[in-house]
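README: folding subset

This subset contains proteins for which both the sequence and a predicted structure token string are available. Records are stored as plain text. Below is the entry for Zinc ribbon domain-containing protein (240 residues), shown exactly as it appears on disk.
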Amino acid sequence: MLLDLCPKCSHILSAPATSCPHCGVIFAKLAQAEARKKQADQPPEDSALKQLFLYAKPEEHAVVIGFKAVLLIILVACGLKLIFTPILAFPQTSWLLHSVNLVFHEAGHLFFSPFGRFLQVLGGTLGQLIIPTVVICTFLWQRDTFGAAVGTWWLGESLLDIAPYINDARAGQLILLGGVTGSEVEDYHDWEVLLTKLNMMQYDHTLARLSFGIGSLLMLIAMLWGSLLLWKGWQTRSKG
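--- output ---
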């Protein structure tokens, strides 16, 4: 036979009751108090956003963390150099990633060509922005937050890469693919075509600065994000 005991004073209860005849405690209130204490003692669960963007793999190998640190240093050095480079002096032709961006730029023209002339022209810019965005989303889906930070850096760099092109819409002086300038070949310069159709040609410099500013901000966020993830990864390893 099982005996019911008061959870507070352990007095034997002869029959089911709502309170203890010995100490007077009300069982419902005691249960509520214990539930609140148990909930308070539990470590707070990370928010969904924190889990999504600040997840650090447990006990990551020191070599992997070291490789990420070297990559981050390179991204910070290159990123700061690019951010502080004036739009007119942005090194499109000498910058390695410009060639990578150009591949996706041209692929964007091809992909959007069935959707009309305007989207075909805009597709070049969309192409070199969509691919880094897909990279970011893929890494987040795989819970590789550092990879997502690198993808964010690339997206920011791509916006910087676009800025001189927008800025040149009226002047048409940039050397384009094929070795010609926008002023030499009619309807060849993407942003000349786009801004003309939108009747926004007078805003070319403003839009260029906006693109450069947003890109710079994304690169800074990516560098801070990557640094925080490395620190968290090292802390997780140290505790493990």
